[in-house]
Design a protein that fits this description.
By secondary structure, the protein is of the alpha/beta class. Helix 4 packs parallel to helix 5. It folds into three domains: about 90 residues, Translation factors (Elongation Factor Tu (Ef-tu), domain 3, Beta Barrel), CATH 2.40.30; about 120 residues, Nucleotide-binding domain of ferredoxin-NADP reductase (FNR) module (Rossmann fold, 3-Layer(aba) Sandwich), CATH 3.40.50; about 60 residues, no CATH class. The chain is globular and about 50 Å long. The strands form four sheets. It has a seven-stranded mixed beta sheet, sandwiched between helices. It has a four-stranded antiparallel beta sheet with strand order 1-7-4-5, with no helix packed on it. The chain contains six helices and 16 strands. Bound molecules: flavin-adenine dinucleotide and FE2/S2 (inorganic) cluster. The site of flavin-adenine dinucleotide has 21 residues, from strand 5, strand 6 and helix 1.
Length: about 270
């Protein structure tokens, strides 16, 4: 696949406000990249940060960004016509099953970015797509209308019960998986959510893939910042999409990650 290694400055063609916390930036350029891959985005005057790529039919490409810190808040202040720099695409892609056409996707937060792109590609190949989207409230259920339009079966869940099931999408998926047989499952979102889905899939022997995010600096395998223990796999090259069997070898999954300085940070649910 073609790769753009030197930052390419592109004007923002369109900005869509998806929710209070998420904005989508659309670009006319036909950037390469498959579902699960990401770009390194240079935000002038701030930093360079990784974002999942979406290639919606009939468009160049888009990224959807949650405002969480300095760079992403600066992006939310930008206007149409302003420039952002891109290199990539980097990382591994999701793969659709060859023996079976029924798949499930479990997404939390901006996990819907790579999974919406995957759902679009899967629907084109006539896969039956069950999508379990979880959010704090109705307003934050990303891309629900788009997913319904392409014929994905949307199972929404919200923390406050403002839409769909009141509670976690992991619980909704678990009870659904008692009666449904999926050929493959995909999950992207907070690591505690991914961990619960991984446990269900391991127990039920369902093939699955997860996108495992780690702090990224270079984005293409040189600095070692995003390596995981004990395999040393770089999540910007061997990941972020990891197969469920390979995931068993990543001992830090669900336990800890490394900060920008490389310091180990345990997740709050790990007590010892
Ligand atoms: C492969 C990958 C794909 C991503 N896709 C998306 C996406 O589609 N949409 C989206 O909103 N966000 C995505 N992110 C997360 C996004 O990169 C961070 O939210 C962003 O870098 C925050 O920058 P900041 O300056 O606003 O916040 P900061 O205050 O710098 O950081 C806030 C938090 O964001 C995370 N973060 C910050 N810098 C990085 C970095 N260089 N690499 C990884 N995580 C970082 C850390 O958890 C940090 O605690 C993705 C991350 C990765 C690794
Ligand atoms: S971010 Fe540098 S090796 Fe992955």
């Amino acid at each position: 696949m073609k790769q753009i290694d030197k930052p390419l400055a592109l004007p923002i063609q369109k900005i869509i406000t998806e929710s209070e916390r998420v904005k989508t930036f659309v670009f006319e350029y036909d950037f390469p990249g498959g579902p699960g891959q990401f770009v390194m985005c240079w935000i002038p005057g701030f930093d360079e940060k990784p974002f999942g790529i979406i290639k919606k039919d009939g468009e160049g490409f888009r990224i959807s960004v949650a405002a969480v810190g300095e760079s992403t808040k600066a992006m939310h202040m930008m206007e149409e016509g302003d420039l952002l720099g891109f290199r990539g695409p980097y990382g591994s892609v999701f793969t659709l099953p060859e023996d079976g056409k029924k798949i499930a996707m479990v997404a939390g937060g901006y996990g819907m970015v790579p999974l919406s792109y995957l759902a679009q590609e899967a629907r084109k190949k006539e896969y039956e797509v069950h999508l379990f989207i979880g959010a704090r409230n109705k307003q934050e259920l990303l891309f629900k209308e788009w997913m319904a339009e392409i014929g994905a079966l949307v199972h929404a869940s919200t923390d406050d019960g403002s839409e769909g099931y009141k509670g976690f999408n992991t619980d909704l998926f678990k009870s659904n998986a008692e009666n449904e047989t999926y050929d493959k499952v995909y999950t992207v979102g907070p690591e505690i959510m991914e961990m619960k889905i991984a446990q269900i899939c391991w127990e039920k022997n369902i093939p699955f893939e997860v996108s495992l995010e780690r702090y990224m600096k270079c984005g293409f395998g040189i600095c070692g910042q995003c390596s995981v223990d004990p395999t040393g796999w770089r999540m910007c090259v061997e990941g972020p999409v990891i197969d469920g069997e390979a995931l068993k070898k990543i001992a830090e999954f669900g336990k800890y990650h490394r900060t920008a300085s490389g310091e180990v940070q345990k997740y709050p649910w790990i007590k010892e």
